[in-house]
Amino acid sequence: MKTLINLIWLIFSGLWMALGYLLAGALCCVLVITIPWGLACFRIAAYALWPFGRTAVQRHDAGAASGIGNIVWLIFAGIWLTIGHITLGVGLCLTLIGIPFGLAHFKMVPISLMPLGREIVPTGTPAAYPHYRW
């Protein structure tokens, strides 16, 4: 079922958001100093292509540099990608069939705002639920 939902997602909105992340990643990789943001964009682009069955979690080993990098990201690229997710999420939630896809867009808002210090893991693994003890 996840594969079918991911294929529908890919056709209607995942491909467009992934292209946005790939464009932002390519622009970030042009300059040497912004390569970490470019790599984060490429990682999120893969997540935007196939989001069902995966989730983004906070990394515990991320330090202050990730926080500062997230502020820079938010100012230059994060706000625009977040606006794209919110716009598509609201538009998809207007239809009954599009509600799960709209919710997936809303699920991607935190990682589009602050991508550094996060990792994407499959759901159902202990890493997806860091606040539970296994």
UniProtKB/TrEMBL annotation:
Pfam families attached to this UniProt entry: YccF
Gene Ontology CC terms, in alphabetical order: plasma membrane
Record InterPro entries: Inner_membrane_protein, UCP028777, YccF
Domain Inner membrane component, residue spans: 4-54, 68-118
Assigned keywords, A-Z: Membrane, Transmembrane, Transmembrane helix
Transmembrane domains' residue ranges: 7-24, 30-50, 62-80, 86-106
NCBIfam families per record: PRK11770.1-2 (NF008740)
Listed name of the protein: YccF domain-containing protein
